[in-house]
Design a protein that fits this description.
31% of the residues lie in helices and 23% in strands. A seven-stranded mixed β-sheet has the order 5-4-1-6-10-7-11. It has one domain (5-247): Alpha-Beta Complex (Spore Coat Polysaccharide Biosynthesis Protein SpsA, Chain A). With 248 residues, it is an alpha/beta fold. Helix 7 packs across helix 8. The chain has helices at 34-45, 58-64, 81-86, 89-92, 111-124, 164-167, 181-188, 204-211, 233-247, and strands spanning 5-11, 28-29, 32-33, 49-54, 71-74, 98-103, 128-134, 143-146, 153-157, 171-180, 216-220. Strand 4, helix 2 and strand 5 (71-74) form a beta-alpha-beta unit.
Length: 248
């Protein structure tokens, strides 16, 4: 397997609950846009290529990130995470190596965790590896279905599609993944939108890869709060508070 590494950063969202027309990833924590926190961490790791998927007011994102060495691709319609990642195929379709997929509104993923996830993924020769975390209150997150007693991932069920039993699971999908580049775009072509949201979920690639006989794994984040994303003004304020506390 090639040791080349790339990343796809999802930064197309408007953020309906942010009470502002600003692209979600440009909301600030400690005076710095969310997506810049993540890109600064990725700069430390040193990837071969970074593709940022933009959509809502994407020109503002391009302008804000002009000092980074990244490529931009447009997601003109917001049809889900799977559709967003698919937009990067024109740049990474021939990429041989490991592709990290991360959300631009998850600012505090640490370099240690990203390196840990990538190195586990490469060593285990998995087709896909999901960064997970255990939350005491997992509300709103997709749940992880493991093969009992192992780190093999069977599937990820979005909360809106989960029954009562599944909702009791506290291990969640952080939205951060590593994929074998060759497997990713092939699996995405088979993703449908037959779900409660009528969206193309990136998480459906897990079931597709497993059905094709490929191995998928999970790697649990050592520090769960770092995988927290921002979906509302309240969450932004809470995250900023914990960031300032941690840095002091």
């Amino acid at each position: 397997m090639s040791n080349k590494t790339a990343a796809i950063i999802l930064a197309a969202g408007k953020g309906k609950r942010m009470k502002s027309d600003l692209p979600k990833v440009l909301h600030e924590i400690a005076g710095k846009p969310l997506v810049r926190h993540l890109l600064d961490t990725l700069a430390v790791i040193g990837l071969d290529k970074i593709v940022v998927v933009i959509g809502h007011k994407g020109e503002m994102v391009i302008d804000d990130l002009k000092d980074y060495r990244v490529d931009f691709v447009w997601q003109k319609e917001q049809l889900g995470t799977g559709h967003a990642v698919q937009m990067a195929e024109k740049i990474l379709g021939e990429f041989v190596g490991t592709i990290l997929v991360a959300a631009g509104d998850v600012p505090f993923l640490s370099a240690e965790s990203i390196r840990g996830l990538m190195s586990f993924h490469i060593q285990s020769k998995a087709a896909a590896t999901c960064l997970t975390a255990e939350f005491s209150n997992p509300k709103g997150y997709g749940r992880i279905i493991r093969q009992k007693g192992t780190d093999f991932l069977s599937e990820i069920i979005e909360e809106k599609d989960a029954d009562e039993e599944i909702r009791k699971i506290r291990e969640i999908n952080s939205g951060t993944f590593c994929f074998n580049g060759k497997e990713l775009f092939g699996a995405l072509k088979q993703v449908g939108n037959h779900n409660a949201q009528k969206e193309f979920y990136l998480t459906d690639t897990i079931r597709i890869l497993r059905n094709a006989g490929k191995e998928c794994r999970v790697w649990k984040a050592p520090y769960p709060p770092e995988v927290a994303g921002v979906n509302s003004v309240e969450e932004l304020a809470m995250l900023e508070k914990s960031f300032l506390a941690k840095n002091n």
